[in-house]
Write the structure tokens for this entry.
Amino acid sequence: MSQLEIKNLHVNIADKEILKGVSLTIKQGEIHAIMGPNGTGKSTLAYTLMGHPAYEVTQGEVIFKGQNILELEPDERSRLGIFLAFQYPVAIPGVTVANFLRTALNARRRAENPEDKGIPVPEFRKLLKGHMEMLKMDPAFAGRYLNDGFSGGEKKRAEILQMATLKPEIAILDETDSGLDIDALRIVADGVNALAGPDLGVLVITHYQRLLNYIKPHVVHIMLGGRIVESGGPDLALHLEEHGYDWIREKYENGIAV
Ligand code: ADP
Ligand code: MG
């Protein structure tokens, strides 16, 4: 049973402290959601976990399989079994979705077994077909060039398909990006629900309470002022839906109880 353990994480952007001691453990089989008003540090947490160079970790660690993943390159994190959405946001003309996924899968397999010769093409086709059926995707999608002219929803599809193919133990999804319409939201939610199970731990970062109408997290965390100020069960999401964030802003100042 793997788990991702975020311990007392402090992160600066341009010398300003944004995350002020975030601690959180996600186990395989659990779905966690982080919610919170804009500007509280949710995306900062996502980018830090992804290894974005602009985010400077000043304290704390993130432990997975006995390693501090903050010391690893983004692709090493991926090969270890952590899926980070938006890892490959760039368009790659000439590389199809299927080719990209096969290359990514083979890299993951070689990380587990250096002798691995790669998945045979017919076996990969079968695997991909199965995933695409499960996710109700048009088979033609696999033949398109990755992210080349993709709509927001199609980028999400590629992302979820990547997750299905790589079978990560922990997936981290930041759904705060602008332009996420209701269709894209549903693609992510349906994908997470289809892939959820005892082997997958998920951290969904969102400011759309709506997303939680479609994904049922086991644990909900509220972030405010760079700290997680409340954690609870699904009822916490319902409470937020009903009452918004005002009560939480009144209860905490800069993430500290008043
Ligand atoms: P959220 O995702 O919760 O809306 P962010 O993590 O994006 O919040 O931002 C947290 C804080 O960090 C905000 O106050 C924002 O202004 C600041 N911030 C984010 N990115 C940068 C940046 N590149 N340079 C300076 N400040 C930034
Ligand atoms: Mg954000």
Observations:
- The pocket of magnesium ion (ligand 2) is lined by residues 42-43, 176 (CB under 6 Å).
